[in-house]
Write a structure and sequence with these properties.
The protein is an alpha/beta fold. Helices cover 44% and strands 14% of the residues.
Amino acid sequence: MRIYGIDFTSTPTSRKPITCLVADLDDNLLSTRQLLRWHSLSEFEDFLSSPGPWVGGFDFPFGQARRFIETIGWLPDWQQYVGYVASLSRAEFRQQLDTYRQARASGDKEHRRYCDQKAGAISPQKLYGVPVGLMFFEGAKRILNSQVSIPGLRPTVDHRSAFETYPALVARRYIGRRTYKQDSKDKQNQTQANARHALWQILHSPQLEADFGLRLENQLSLCNDPSGDELDALLCAIQAGWAYLHNIETIYLNMGIDPLEGWIADPSLIDQTLS
């Protein structure tokens, strides 16, 4: 099976592109093949229309918190509320989220999905700092329009499947909260490089198979990128490969995940939910 790991940005440029790792999964061996870099959202759309079969792990939130959807008055159906978001301009989307926050008490302005709480992720409403809300705005509508199968939100018979991934979960599992990446060149340092290499070593050890059921065969030196984008794309591919290998769609059905919110594909979240 062809596996893609996509480290997403809501505003891709030549300096900060969307980074996609191409890999193949044969039995439980994940073999990296090449890196793709998309400098525009239209290139990302072209990828989404590419024929299958393939499985993609996408590093952006596919949904919003149920509490937010119900309180703001969006339609209580994933396809309908993402379709509504697609009708908005980026400025209109920002205005709706800003207005929502302003009317609410401190500490109750941005809501997290259940999977965000489990994963220690920030709210998909967030527009500033790490603009996860804009990643949702630019990513989710394109996933919707692509007609790919989205287990837990819009499963179909399409031979292309999209999973929401969160590379920080894999990194934290193996190196804790050590910082391993930095976009600003003047803040990149050896400590981050050491953390990337420590993570790299663990990913190539038997520990990966014990945790994800995967073995890794790398033809690319992905840990030398100080921004961490290439390494994050690999972590997304690992989560997507795990989801495919373990028939995650059936697991999602058994879990009864919220069809408004969706779920992040990672074994640690399955364990937490079922424990």
